[in-house]
Design a protein that fits this description.
Radius of gyration: 21 Å
Order of helices and strands: EEHEHHHEHEEHEHH
Mean pLDDT: 79
Largest sheet: 5 strands, parallel
Distance between the termini: 59 Å
Helix content: 40-55%
Low-confidence stretches: 1-9
Strand order of the largest sheet: 4-3-5-6-7
Strand content: 5-15%
Number of strands: 7
């Protein structure tokens, strides 16, 4: 046991036991047919309680999407789709069966989402994955312990479309660029190096 990032005693063993149980139960194995990059979009309200008396006890009058959603979601989806083509997929987890959620998160290399319950699925991610958690109006650390125990590269950023795009580009690296863009990037770097050397020689 140790002191986790939230200041609460945590233990990695229960996480690994749970993961192994789920993976064995549903036969979860690597599958290259799943998208590398997943964007989590929050869905509309889903009616889970039919009992009228129980509905009266539900004080949660707003949905997660009404409380928090990524800034300019449609623009971000277009940005990722244009860059990554079939390597990218948007998921509304309210419409995805639990077993499929596990498979998507297990096989993903990069996950982007606003802070919310969907990120509980980080439990099923592989250690090499990168996660960008977009924050709302407050700082949340609920999922930091999971990421720390599973050695997930978990980054956070403000809920601003330009900041989100910049952070995605930084995290996903050179593979985010097309061959033409990558070559142009290398050319710019080499140009700067050559000009710098010429300046140093002329001094």
């Amino acid at each position: 046991r140790d002191i986790g990032v939230t200041g609460v005693q945590t233990c990695a063993l229960p996480i690994y036991f749970f993961r192994n149980y789920i993976f064995n139960k549903f036969n979860i194995t690597p599958n290259n047919s799943y998208p590398e990059v997943i964007l989590i979009e929050r869905g509309e309200r889903v009616q889970l309680i039919d009992d009228k008396e129980l509905q009266k006890l539900n004080n949660n009058v707003t949905t997660g999407k009404e409380r928090r959603e990524i800034d300019k979601m449609d623009e971000l989806k277009l940005f990722l789709s244009d860059k990554l083509k079939d390597k990218f997929k948007t998921l509304v987890l309210e419409k995805v069966p639990f077993v499929d959620q596990i498979k998507y998160f297990f096989n993903a290399k990069f996950i982007i989402g606003i802070h919310g319950a969907a990120l509980s699925n980080l439990l099923f991610c592989q250690p090499s994955i990168k996660v960008l958690e977009v924050l709302g109006d407050r700082q949340f650390r609920f999922f930091d312990v999971i990421s720390a125990k599973l050695k997930i590269n978990h980054q956070k950023c403000e809920n601003d479309i330009n900041i989100i795009k910049q952070k995605i580009t930084e995290l996903y690296g050179d593979s985010f660029f097309s061959l033409e863009e990558y070559n142009a990037k290398i050319f710019d770097i080499l140009t700067v190096e050559v000009m710098t050397k010429k300046y140093e020689v002329s001094k």
